[in-house]
Specification:
homotetramer; alpha/beta; Rossmann fold; Dihydrodipicolinate Reductase, domain 2; 2 domains; six-stranded parallel sheet; 13 strands
Chain lengths: ~350, ~350, ~350, ~350
């Protein structure tokens, strides 16, 4: 049993972490902090946790996080970078579910996130927590940068292609669709039910913060800079990301075999039979990425469909997967939920 | 480990049973039958079960159900009554998730279900599987009639009141709202997305089949016939039932204490603090009924709010709970899922 | 053509007023004000109005509202009461879509709305704008209090019963369900898509501000105080209210004939055949209330189903209907939209 | 006033035609046929039309369609091709909302639609009813093939580009998302609420019937064959199509000016300011296509966003627009509805 703390547990990634950790066989949840809701019982804010989580939100200052083995940051961007150093110095390992440590190039990060980085020296130490790409580095890491939701779906969908160099890496296209929970639990007009229900739209087409993150990961995998057009959309569902990926084939191969081989040992990536159509509900509330390949009309454009639950494999579930790797647990511990369908 | 079979597993209660049983510590799933889909892999029809259920649907004739310890019927009404006798004679215990054995009065059943009962002699033996009312009888039962979804939510909400005789039992009102999955996985125009989304309506107001079932249960609890107006509604969500119950107080009492005491030992009934407002998502995908009491403006009308997931506590979860009781397992075995929120 | 102004046009009742007024044959829209969005083109905020509304939001101070024949207030509660006097003195007629002038008893209003009333002397002059009850008084009115959404659906559903005194007026029950747009376009967590979609709940059961408004209207109609239990619910759809009303019959009558006769001349109330089940989409985006009667199992409880679009007959449409009456236009002018189905 | 008939009015395009035609100033609706529902009042099936459409569905044999000036076919594919000849011979003009006359190459049509064409000689006469491309030919046409929903959104989005030859026409990509009403009002499991709500998926990626239709239209516009990857998706909303289009720029130009100029005179195409994000609700229930251009990171990939209501500009509204052109009415007659938002 390890002692675990959560900083900032009142958002959707926070409550999802709680759902997963409350059932984890090797975790003792010690503290969960919230500036605004200190003193309030967690199960009072999230009745789904009644009888399952006895903790109350603690004031960040009062919570003895340094006594934990691991602390998750489920905070807005810009918080973890200010607090991680002290925890690391106290021997606590850290997984940040926000974006503070994802981008290696500080200048790029500062441009896209619009703030000065408070701990640039930690960025180089941080390991990008995509287990399917970085498992070996995650194991000993003190500080893990948990990937974004879009970046998880898009990178898992493109990785075998860019690693193998079989497609035109200068003109990748990722047309991605997300449920509204991806926008978080902030009170904002554009996330209201009456603004998002029964409607569909693209957003952030000129540039979305997940673009540099995806580009960084794919470029590392390709061994050279890739070119990517990334268009995110908002779709009227709570959970789920569906990435539709387009790549121009430059060298022929058995792509289906390529994907099956690449992910053969991966417990949380499921390559479907060729020409399948995964729906997001097939991964709802579970830590899985399902991927299907298509070659429409046998042309030179390959289409890859990649689906995840943005709050699980795209956030809290992947964070628990990283924790399992870091502490030597069975990688699937606490992550065996079956998707909820219908 | 007991050997379990499922008859008719292609509907929503079937796939939900599979989700729960696949994770149950004491169950070995031996067969699942489907007339129309025999030979097809279960995980092919329900990709959410890929890697978790290796079975294919079996032809009902070929499946060796008699080698099972327990068979669930997740079939339309009228099937189980034709097949239960042979299984019982072979020593197999049976839980019917349909309505065949719920109503004790054969004439009433035949009127509401519009068919002749094929096994009236089994009806008297069958135990109505609402554990909170009939746990002792469920334990040794060979044949359990699993309650309907509305009847579960409404009875659990009214039971303490009618048992105690503190309200006018002649004029109970149950205004109930159900998600669309309650209508099943049949191809019917009135269950289409474009017919039910972004809209709300009552249905079956002149008379719904769950009315006599609820009336029977409440009358037994009251020790006399109760009068009930039951108005079901369809609400644009997949899972969930919200029953809003109205009763006229005839004798004062501490109703909150009454409910808390009545359900103190019940693992799957959660009485909320007085004047709470449970939402259906607080029980989504979990085997729980949450109940809250209100006394608007201190008048003589008591309002009870009762929510369940119609596919779990209202169907498959309750069936597993009954199985646990029948076979002496921990009643919570395989039923510890935390509700999925958001 | 009359000159019309709107104060506070950035909420849902505001944009709905714009949709209706832009097509009204006798209206010239002169000004629409917004403190926060002054200078912004209306069609920039609401692209649905591109090419149809050329106005920009005006600063409240700069807008020459006194040159209008009529001003609508589509503001939060508490605004109109501070500004109506000056407009009335300038000869401008006023329709308030908020609650400032709905409740005749100032003490009751102040208790439920939690503020001091700024213009109590106008309350007695104000006419409650439910045309089906007060058409004659609306015609000459200078100041009309447009009814709330729930009050419209519930009162139209109960009016024939309480006017005729055929039911127990001390124990009326209104179980009402609303789409989320009823909560307005304010940025609040509880109205987020991820909080309200795929879920259902009651709210405000201990007491909702529309309760005293409904009770006042029904009491006037009954000629004596009525007793009402009012339970509002939130349902995952954008528009629509479905009120399910329960009344105990104390004297028999042909209730269907009663309703058909009561509403025979009403252009915007549609009494359906006995035992119908109106859905809210049958009135979506149109100024109609559809009503159906039921007498379940022939018992003494009468069930009335009443549906409206909360933004049309429950707000902006009714306001236009009141305007038509006040200015002697055809009562249906600008209100002939056919409901949008599916 | 022209006399109009509708063949097959029980689907979603049928009821939408009725909504539009009931308010059209120059149309007298004479007959609407339905094999299965003959004798039933239209307003009984679609209560939204109560008081607005007095007709009953007529038996196809009994309806005197030959007395009409114009007949719309709102039937499944394969019906109009068997009946159009007789109507044309009787001097009746025909608009087919199905696909029978859309594809000029009979072999291609027969391959994609899986049936023998019953009237190949009419295909060459038929005019493809996309007014923005073919207005002059539509005017005198006897037989108009109303475009499909996806083809309308995709062609309007791509037309200026392919006409001008400024992009790589061999590798166009159309990633399109449709509401569920596009699947029609047929009772099919995959269109059920519980199958499609709160989920997102691609479908028909190997090949969708609208692909050859789009390719034909764009090839005509380009003056040479275009290459297109078309990936349709199902999104949990009732109405709306959002097409996200990708093209590689081969020659620079002011693309925003190109689009604005191309559609300057078009009453039903709205080019938004550069880098806008139209949502489908901004065209809900109205006959409009809104288009926005993006050039992410100034790269060589142009992104075009194109939204329509699939039942209006993508079906019934466009059919009425074609009717207006054919009979010399104002092209906007009966099509001035403002989109319903929220």
């Amino acid at each position: 049993m390890i002692k675990v703390g959560i900083v900032g547990g009142t958002g959707y990634t926070g409550v999802e972490l709680l759902r997963l950790l409350a059932q984890h066989p090797h975790v003792e949840l010690r503290a969960i902090t919230s500036r605004g809701d200190a003193g309030r019982a967690v199960a009072d804010m999230f009745p789904s946790l009644r009888g399952r989580i006895a903790l109350s939100f603690a004031d960040p200052k009062a919570a003895d996080l340094e006594a934990c083995d691991l602390v998750f940051f489920a905070t807005p961007n810009g918080i973890a970078m200010g607090q991680a150093r002290a925890l690391l110095d106290a021997g606590v390992r850290v997984i940040d579910l926000a974006a503070d440590f994802r981008i290696k190039d500080i200048a790029v990060w500062e441009k896209w996130y619009g703030m000065k980085h408070a701990a640039p020296e930690l960025v180089s130490e941080a390991v990008y927590g995509l287990p399917e790409a970085n498992r070996a580095q995650i194991r000993p890491a003190r500080l893990v940068a948990n990937p974004g939701c879009y970046p998880t779906a898009v990178q898992l969908g493109f990785l075998p292609l860019v690693e193998s160099g079989l497609v035109d890496g200068d003109h990748l296209i990722a047309d991605a669709k997300s449920g509204v929970s991806g926008a978080g639990r902030k009170a904002e007009v554009h996330s209201l039910f009456s603004e998002t229900s029964d409607s569909f739209k693209a957003y952030g087409v000129p540039g979305h913060r997940h673009l540099p993150e995806i580009r960084q990961g794919l470029s590392i995998a390709a061994g050279k800079a890739v070119g990517l057009t990334f268009v995110p959309h908002l779709t009227p569902m709570i959970r789920g990301i569906h990435a539709t990926l387009y790549a121009r084939v430059t060298r022929e191969a058995d792509f289906q075999a390529l994907y099956e081989s690449r992910y053969k040992e991966e417990p949380f990536v499921d390559v479907l039979p060729f020409a399948s159509h995964p729906d997001t509900r097939s991964v709802r509330a579970a830590n899985i990425c399902r991927i299907a390949l298509h070659r429409p009309q046998g042309g030179d454009t390959l289409v890859v469909l990649s689906v995840i639950d943005n709050l699980v494999k795209g956030a809290a579930g992947q964070a628990v997967q990283n924790m399992n790797i870091m502490f030597g647990f069975d990688e699937c511990a606490g992550l065996t939920q079956i998707p909820v369908l219908p």
